[in-house]
Amino acid sequence: MQHTVYWIEGDGVGADIWKAAKPVADKAVQCAYRGQEEILWKELLAGEKAYVQTGEYLPKETLDTLKTAHVAIKGPLATPVGTGIRSLNVTLRQTFDLYACIRPVKWYQGIISVVRRPERVNMTIFRENTEDVYSGIEFASHTEEAKKLIDFLNQNFHKNLKEECAVGIKPMTEYGCKRLVRRAIQFAIDNHLPSVTLVHKGNIMKFTEGAFQKWGYEVAKEEFPALTITEKEVREGMDPQNKVIIKDRIADAMFQEALLHPAEYSVLATTNLNGDYLSDAIAAQVGGIGMSPGVNMSDSLAIFEATHGTAPNIAGKDIANPCSLLLSFAMLLDHIKLDKAANAIRQAIQNCIDKKTVTKDLAEEIENAAPVSCSSFGKLLMEEIEHMQF
Ligand code: NAD
Description:
Layout: E1 2-8, H1 14-33, E2 38-43, H2 48-54, H3 60-68, E3 71-74, H4 88-95, E4 100-106, E5 122-128, E6 138-139, H5 144-157, E7 167-168, H6 174-190, E8 195-200, H7 209-223, E9 228-230, H8 231-235, E10 244-250, H9 251-260, E11 267-270, H10 272-284, E12 293-297, E13 302-306, H11 323-335, H12 339-354, E14 357-358, H13 360-363, E15 370-371, H14 374-386
Parallel strand pairs: 1-2, 1-3, 3-13, 5-11, 8-10, 8-11, 9-10, 14-15
Antiparallel strand pairs: 4-5, 4-12, 6-7, 12-13
Nicotinamide-adenine-dinucleotide (NAD) is lined by residues 13, 17, 76-79, 89, 290, 305, 308-311, 313-314, 320-321, 361.
């Protein structure tokens, strides 16, 4: 069977990591399924490469193709800070309503971690991707728009905002929060995971973050009554057996919990800004975003992605680490039910870490490791896969 996978190379180190990772992905599918399953790669243009070839950063053809696609995977795309083009990543998320950003964070044995017990970290973060302060409604200080909004709020709602304020809006809907939490709970059920924790800042932002918590518990109670139980009910003596425990934590406390008691958390469901911070902070415990895969999903399209940026300082030098892209590809393979190939990629990465033959950034995190180039690392992974029993 052929599986069409659309791929976007990305800017900066995108070309380096794809050159190493794509043959590894093909090798894993080929060895695991002996020709019965095959990836049909179709390239889509975006970013600098698209601009050079078409004069557009996100060509219409790419957008049209993604409208009917189900699975895609991308390298990093550059976004200028403060000026220039709008973030292509944000445009993709908003155009295709990719409302769930999902990041599994797990430690690979051998990587030196900043924490003492990194093996206790095994969390999947579900971050709402389309609402919150990221919705782009912001007005700069001293502008006409900001002044109008400030006057309106001061006059109609008896607020006392200073005239020179910059203003941003934080819209959050019941629909948007519930679909994210629904997905997180379903994931926990499908993967036999013990809990889903709703992470919010509802003690301060009662009607946005507080509503996220309230709507989250409602989804569990109304849509998964037989399969979920709240932490409070467990404390009161109810039996949690075969049920996903729904907990909630205030965001600042969750950062502490993730460091002190990571084993007590398995799936986190959270709002856009909290999720952005939490994903990187938790990934840092297991060796940073270089080892973190991710996906942005709607109900019909999943765009998997390397979670790091374009790394302009090392682009073109053949020293980048392709693991984030490869682990994202493993997630993609799980998604299309080719889990034997997905596991082979993960195992090959673990084997190379065990043998201490890894790219420079990882070599710096492993005692007595010998750094290899990005392309050599890809070749070593392929050799590992060739020697595996399927
Ligand atoms: P970055 O992730 O590109 O770089 C941060 C540090 O990590 C650098 O030292 C870099 O060398 C290192 N690094 C990143 N990827 C690596 C890899 N695969 N192997 C080894 N080392 C790696 O972050 P930044 O410098 O903040 O951003 C650069 C550009 O990337 C910006 O334009 C930003 O908007 C964009 N960006 C894109 C995405 C995305 O497409 N998902 C994510 C983050 C940043």
